[in-house]
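With this grant's support, we have settled on a layout for protein records. One resulting record is reproduced below.
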Amino acid sequence: MSVFGLALLFWLAAWAVNAALARSRWRDASGVRVVVPVLFGAAILGLWEGAVRGFGVSPVILPAPSSVAARFAGETGLLWEDFLQTVLKGALSGYAIGCGAAFLVAVLIDRSRFLTRGLLPVGNFVAALPIVGIAPILVSWFGFDWQSKAAVVVVMVFFPVLVNTVQGLAEASAMQKDLMRTYAASYLQTLLKLRLPAAMPFVFNGLKIATTLALIGAIVAEYFGSPTRGMGFRISTGVGRLDIELVWAEIAVAALTGSAVFGLVSLVERWVTFWHPSQRS
């Protein structure tokens, strides 16, 4: 049997196991929830490996996962340096600044009807601007180092978090607000004890959307100017030198980082919004 045939057989077997787990009485167990996506991902990688090997696809077009893994293991120092530059300096700092500012502005908008009518339409307009148009401008303003990447990330994450937070602050019902007024609660007390807890599912929805946008924004910004390090810089130069295996290694780092941060935010959401119906077993 050919390599592709073996990979296809493995994929079908993994599919059958996943289907059986999804129908089993243990389908809601935490262990099964982890095994199913891991097995599904392994099946896709196996099919990818078999297709590349079986059909003799050129590494310039699509390298095999094993080749990417070998390059990943051989370039851990370089990948770590790029990770520090792009993720920890650019994406994470921009994410923290953008999300924090969006939350504060959302509270101000909720307090002021003028800002609600004036700023939200402007926010929707800015959110629709293409990142490839904003990034070169911000790079020219803030320079080639991580500060310009953080600025791009701030622009990308600000308005999704803002819109979700404003929507969440309006989630409390009129009866609940009337009850707080009956207790002579001030605006701050109503905000802290009723409206913010009710808004948390919306806030975390915006934060989870922003996790992927932050990484994308930092990588794209590095295409328009960067020091000789960074994931976006390495991807652009790797494509130019036809070093596709290194490009896929950088993509793997970005995918793993994005998944890890998304999972971390989801875990914090479960701790904070344990009372919400979506978090109940």
Residues 72 and 252 are 9 Å apart (CA to CA).
